[in-house]
């Protein structure tokens, strides 16, 4: 029997109500599916981005043959001779391909994005940078003792994440090996050119060394940056008392490098600002002030001034300097210098800040240096990145002076 919809029971839903309910149900289903797709896409994109980050800065895969260098030590523990055994060393390569950019804006965007990817440390790490020491990288080595031959064996394997010490944003690292307290006799690895993740794989033998004397020594490793024309720059050090090591078999260690104990960590700090103007193709460097500078004179003070070098592809382009502040370890300079830097040259540009002690009767002394570029140390990279991200605005930051 046909029943009139209008005559339906009061509790039954009408046709219009059913139609609206169906439309709402379909809309909600589509929304849920789209949200699920969005989350899936985000996970996929996030995974791809993570993978791209993981490929940045990985050490080269080349490995060399183990090399042996020996020091023969009589019962007195003094070195008599060294005899390096030749071996094949890994070939160091660095991939620095750059792609042409269609416009200045594209280049600026590219620089910003690359710095976000390559600069070490997360935003959280950068926020706590002021309360933690600078990362100097780490080193892998092995040590063991042969009781039959009375020989201590030290193998230097590799290092990772070393800081850049050169104008080019890299370093030429090598390792010195000591058995403290004897610092007169030392052994050295080969120099690895332009490599922040070097592989040495070199073995060193301390021969004729009685075990009872070995356990009284401290193995001291110092990583340095080789410089052909000046003093080698210290990168970091590791020391390990041999009486705390099980020398009956070769033990392998990963150790974080610590600042070298040569006073380089107490050279003082410098406050400076950078202001980048992309339309004018210029960077303004403002040397603001310094604090707690190292005393270089006999009277316990210094006569500081600041040199600012503009470097392009390891070549000195232009130099500026401040006035000299007499007998002042906390000088205030407030001097600004403008440098013309085309946007397309920012990749290969480094600004070197050197705090000097003026001396009338002899050569001026270097108190400390700062290297500013997009591929320097973590603090310097952060300052450079902030300058690019905030054009036409002075960006100030304190920097620790380095040897």
The averaged pLDDT comes out at 74
Radius of gyration: 30 Å
Spell the H/E element sequence.
HEHHEEEEEHEEEEEEEEEEHE
Structural class label: alpha+beta
For this entry, what is the oligomeric state of its chains? single chain
Percent helix: 10-25%
Uncertain runs are 1-10, 32-65, 74-104, 111-132
> Biggest sheet, strands in spatial order?
1-6-3-2-9
Quick one: biggest sheet?
Answer: 5 strands, mixed
User: Quick one: overall form?
Assistant: globular
Number of strands: 17
Number of helical stretches of at least 4 residues: 5
Distance between the termini: 101 Å
Strand residue content: 25-35%
How would you sum up this structure, described in words?
19% of the residues lie in helices and 34% in strands. The chain has 403 residues and is of the alpha+beta class. A 5-stranded mixed beta sheet has the order 1-6-3-2-9, with no helix packed on it. A hairpin with a 7-residue loop joins strand 7 and strand 8 (233-241). The radius of gyration is 30 Å and the shape is globular. Residues 1-10, 32-65, 74-104 and 111-132 have low confidence and may be disordered.
């Amino acid at each position: 029997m046909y029943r009139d919809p209008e005559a339906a029971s009061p509790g039954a839903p009408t046709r219009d109500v059913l139609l609206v309910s169906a439309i709402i149900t379909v809309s909600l289903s589509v929304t849920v599916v789209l949200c699920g797709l969005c989350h899936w896409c985000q996970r996929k994109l996030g995974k791809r981005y993570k993978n791209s980050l993981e490929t940045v800065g990985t050490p080269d895969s080349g490995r060399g043959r183990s090399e042996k260098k020996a020091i023969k030590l009589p019962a007195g523990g003094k070195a008599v001779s060294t005899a390096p055994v030749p071996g094949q060393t890994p070939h160091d390569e660095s991939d620095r391909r750059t792609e042409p950019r269609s416009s200045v804006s594209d280049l600026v965007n590219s620089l910003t994005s690359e710095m976000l990817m390559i600069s070490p440390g997360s935003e959280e790490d950068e926020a706590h940078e002021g309360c933690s020491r600078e990362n100097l990288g780490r080193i892998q080595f092995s040590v063991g003792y042969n009781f039959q031959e009375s020989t201590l064996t030290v193998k230097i394997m590799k290092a990772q994440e070393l800081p850049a010490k050169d104008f080019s944003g890299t370093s030429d690292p090598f390792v010195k090996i000591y058995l403290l307290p004897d610092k007169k006799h030392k052994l050295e690895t080969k120099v690895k050119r332009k490599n922040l993740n070097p592989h040495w794989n070199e073995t060193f033998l301390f021969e004729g060394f009685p075990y009872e004397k070995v356990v009284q020594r401290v193995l001291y490793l110092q990583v340095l940056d080789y410089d052909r024309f000046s003093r080698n720059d210290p990168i970091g050090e590791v020391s390990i008392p041999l009486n705390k090591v099980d020398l009956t078999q070769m033990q392998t260690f990963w150790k974080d490098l610590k600042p070298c104990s040569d006073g380089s960590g107490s050279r003082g700090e410098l406050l400076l600002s950078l202001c980048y103007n992309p339309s004018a193709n210029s960077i303004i460097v403002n040397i603001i002030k310094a604090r707690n500078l190292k005393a270089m004179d006999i009277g316990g003070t210094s006569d500081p001034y600041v040199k600012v070098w503009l470097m392009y592809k390891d070549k000195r382009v232009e130099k500026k300097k401040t006035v000299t502040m007499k007998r002042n370890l906390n000088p205030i300079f407030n001097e600004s210098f403008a440098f013309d830097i085309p946007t397309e040259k920012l990749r290969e540009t480094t600004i070197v800040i050197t705090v000097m002690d003026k001396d009338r009767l002899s050569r001026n002394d270097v108190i400390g240096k700062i290297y500013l570029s997009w591929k320097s140390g973590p603090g310097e990279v952060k300052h450079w990145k902030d300058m690019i991200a905030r054009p036409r605005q002075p960006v100030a930051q304190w920097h620790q002076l380095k040897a």
